[in-house]
Amino acid sequence: MAEANDNPIPADPAGATDGDEAVTAPASWSQVWQLPVLLIGVGLFIMGIYVALPEPKQDDFPSALDSISQYLVAGDTKTAHAMLKDLESHIVRASPAEQAWFEELFGDLVFHQQKQLKVEDAANHELMLGYYRQSAQLGRPLDDLRLQRMAGALVSLEREDEALELLKKLQEAAPQRRYAVVRQLIEKRLAAPKVDPLALDKLIDHFLEEVARESDKAMQRQQEVWGLATKARLLFDAGDHAGVIDLIARRKITLMDRGGEKDLAPLDVVRAKSYLALGNFRVAREVFTAVSRQLSKADELNAETLVGLGQIELMQTDDIAAAWQYFKLAEENHRPQEADPARSPYFEALLGRVDCEARMGRHPEALEHLANAVKTLLESPHPPADRRERLLVLALSHHVAVTDLDQHDTALQYLSVLSPLHGDRLPPERWAMFAATHERIAAKKLRDAGLPMPTDVAPGGGIDETVEPVQPGTAGPAPTKETIRLVRQQAATHFDLAGRAHEQHAKGVSAIDPKSAGDSYWAAAGAFDNAFQWQMAVRMYQQFLQNRGDDPRRIDAFHKLGLAFLADKKYQDAVDKFDLLRRDHPTHKVTAMSLVPLARALMALDKFDEATKVLLDVVTNHPAITPQSREYRDALIALGRLYHQRKDYENAIQRLADAVDRYGESEQGPALRFLLAESYRQSIPAIDRSLEEPLPQSKVREYQAERIRRLEQALILHSQVVTQLGEVEEESLSPIHRLYFRNAYFYRADCAFDLRRYEQAIELYDAAARRWRDHPASLVALVQMVNSYAELGQHQSARAVNLRARDHLRRIPDEAFDDPSLPMTRKHWQDWLAWSGKLNLFDEQASADGGTP
Question: Which of 74, 375, 46, 340 is nearest to 193 (CA)?
Answer without folding.
Answer: 340
